[in-house]
Amino acid sequence: MKSFPMFIRTTGRRVVIVGGAEQAAQKARLLLKTDATLVLVAATLEDELQALVDNGRASHHPDLSAQCFTGAAMAFIGTGCPALDAAAHALAKAAHCPVNVVDRPDLCDMTTPAIVDRDPIVVAIGSEGTAPVLTRDIKTRLEQMLPQSLGGLAALAGRLRPAVERRVPRARRRAFWSWVFKGAPRDAWTRGQERAAARALKSAIEAGAPPHGETSGQISLVGAGPGARDLLTLRAVERLQEADVIFYDRLVDEEVLELARRDAERVFVGKHVGAHAWPQDRINRMIVAAAGKGQRVVRLKSGDPGIFGRATEEIEAARAAGIPIELVPGVTAASAAGAMLCQSLTERNVADTLVLATGTGCASDPAPDSTRHSGPGTTTAFYMGVRHAGRLAGDLMAKGMPASAPVDVAVDVSKPGQRHIGTTLGALAETLHGNDVSGCAVLLVTWPKRQHAHRAHDRGLAGHDASWRKPAIAL
Fold first, then answer.
1. Which of 60, 104, 213, 339 has the smallest number of CB atoms closer than 10 Å to its CB?
2. The dihedral of CA 189, 195, 197, 198: what is its sign?
3. What pLDDT, on a 0 to 100 scale, did the predictor assign at position 467?
């Protein structure tokens, strides 16, 4: 390292900012996160800086001198004039004040890092001035990982630390704080239940230990989205970072798993349509057993766990065992397919109803009536319908949809190998076979409202009539 990272106390100390325009305002915005006394040194101040003075948040010194820097914790210089910046730097050095000059690394005693602020938890990321874009990218990732409310829990813990030292034996304190920050109090806090978390924490302090037999075990059914990891929700990333064990399906991309804790156990449950290496009841037993041991369990499912993901069975198993469970939604395949095509799934006067249907049933209903809600004014997204494409097309045509109606086939949406195949309803099964589409695909079929009025005319067309449909985007 060429620079040593450290935190400088600002309470009761002055920080000098030299400059009265945008460069100085940028530094002021950063320092406003602290409790430092700000001193603005410039002949005149732009409106934002003047407002700080008017509100009593900063003081204004129009004349630059060495006295401005005497006793200051640090100084930031950004006048926009290289000569004036150099002069101010010399005065600051003469007063033995650590200084940062905007865009002049050769004149900087210190550099400002990218900051993730969860006061009093603060994360600073620096690259010694070599890679600011990379530091901002790391900051963005950390912002996604750390809940906005995390600092509040840390502040509460700080206020209660003296009580913990009085009541909790020294030998048990590490385990106590682990329970606070990894167990039930943090779970409640990050879900917005601050009062419940505070009550639990204070009760445990009074008792000298967390509740007897209490575990931090819980289950999160997390939607991994269609494949691309940057389509995960922030909450999904948080759960992956917290997980002790992750049970995942074959459709979950490896890049998504890379967001998980490195030391989290990963269990592939290997579910395939028609060939479940892990039957559902076994998965239920395993996730409940892991949570019963006090582990944080993530059941990671592609897409949205609440849409054709058999979430109900896992929720019921957890509730029957008294295990806390939550569902974290994900981007479902139909939405990702629409995004891939850059077209809306609904449109006024064309399709005002969106139907999500599955082409694959269960043992008791192997061929569900997947088209029963399809009709004029609907867009139907068929999940797991590739193997049943011929039956689905036949059912739609029997309801009056013409064989010439266009169909969008979205394959492996959001993944590197994503494909869009345009075809017609009558040629759907043949097209899927000819393009070797055998698994992860969504079939999008729109039946426009005005198609109903011209249905007889369309039935008489020998060719493909797509005049009522927006052109598909070739990918």
1. 213
2. positive
3. 36
Phi and psi of 409, rounded to 5°? -110, 115
The CATH number of the domain covering residues in 218-331:
3.40.1010.10
Task: Determine whether 183 is exposed, middle or buried from the number of CB atoms within 10 Å of its CB (0-12, 13-18, 19+).
Answer: buried
Each residue's pLDDT tens digit, 52-95:
999 999 999 999 999 999 999 999 999 999 999 999 999 999 99
The domain spans of the chain are 14-112, 150-207, 218-331, 335-459
Which positions are catalytic? 249, 271
Give the C-alpha separation, 221 to 388, whole Å.
28
Classify 153 as helix, strand or coil.
Answer: helix
Q: Are 458 and 406 in contact (CB under 8 A)?
A: no
CATH number of this structure's domain 335-459, picked from the four choices 3.90.70.10, 3.30.70.80, 3.30.950.10, 3.40.50.300: 3.30.950.10
DSSP state at residue 87: H
Taking the whole predicted model, whether its pTM rises above 0.70 is answered as: no
- Helix H or strand E encompassing 145: helix 132-145
Q: How many CB atoms lie within 10 A of CB 205?
A: 20
Contact assessment for residue 91 and residue 68, using Cβ atoms and an 8 Å cutoff: yes
Cα 391 to Cα 385: distance, rounded to the nearest angstrom: 9
Assign domain 14-112 to a CATH class: alpha beta
Average pLDDT, whole number, for the chain?
88
Helices (H) and strands (E) in the chain, counts: 17, 17
Q: Quote the Cα angle for 361-367-372, to 5°.
A: 95
Instruction: Name the least confident of 284-293, 302-311, 360-369, 395-404.
Output: 360-369
The candidate with the shortest Cα–Cα distance to 380, out of 369, 363, 340, is 369
Asked if residue 52 lies in contact with residue 25, where contact means CB atoms within 8 angstroms, the answer is no
The fraction of the chain above a pLDDT of 70, given in percent, is: 92
